[in-house]
Amino acid sequence: SLKYAPSLTVYDYSISEEQIGGMKVKEVVFSYNYSYDIPPTDIIFHCHYQGSPVIVFLMERPDNEVIELIKKPLPLSEGEKIRVAIGRASKIKAYNFGSKFDREEDRISRDMVVPTKIFFSEAKEGIFRNPIPLKGVYKVTAMIILPREDDRVEDAHISFLGSVSGLLGTDNSRRDIWSGIAAGVKWALIIGSLTALISVSVGVIYGVTSAYLGGWQDALMQRIFEIFRSVPLLPLLIVMSAVFKPNIWALIFMMCIFFWVGPVKTVRSIGLQIKEETFIEASRGFWCFKFENYI
Length: 295
Known about the structure:
- The protein is an alpha+beta fold.
- The chain has helices spanning 86-89, 91-99, 115-119, 177-213, 215-230, 233-244, 248-259, 264-275, 278-285, 290-294, and strands spanning 8-10, 14-20, 23-34, 42-51, 54-60, 66-73, 77-85, 136-146, 152-161.
């Protein structure tokens, strides 16, 4: 059976530095041992950078062929994390490289080229339609040109996005969906459990109190309840989240402010029903206080 390349992130690299005129040039070299039949789907470069560096990506294959992948000028930044999809952006380079070895009549449309299939295949006839995996150590070099003295690139690493996906597949950025769900479940449980516990507790206490007091106090509490119930909750939460950028605990607090109205009517109706029970009337005949009646 065919062996599919799994996803792999490489943090280890060798680095060299050279001063050319007023510019500094760094070469960051990552090694990738490819021993599979189906290549990675993309190559992603990650880093934090400051200034406006220019990065040129090169790939040295096991057969000593060197391919210039892409040249990427980065926008001016004071400290930003960036990811560069090398594979997807190098379709023209892949087509030009494959064209050197395949006959013109055997070539495919440039739009149909999958760059990584070309880069990880033997440089011989049939590279477009019947590629043969070229196994061995590949070296991906990021040549970083720093035009200013205070420009810098840090925390560089490279990801080879495999053809093997998780239980639920991957998103359009090739990230495992199952891992994201597993990481978010604990926060979903925390938000749901705390919001439900606090909201139901407040709603029950409010409904019982309203039924217990009765009269104008009950009427006032019901008007307050109706105001909260009539608020369009979802749009309000969306606006508040966009304006205030709350954390999880603030989000729980905001939901509790409006979710407590759920059990109020039911609890109040049960409380009013209990007030009319025979044993309540009997206890009043024995001069019991109102609170003692409910106890």
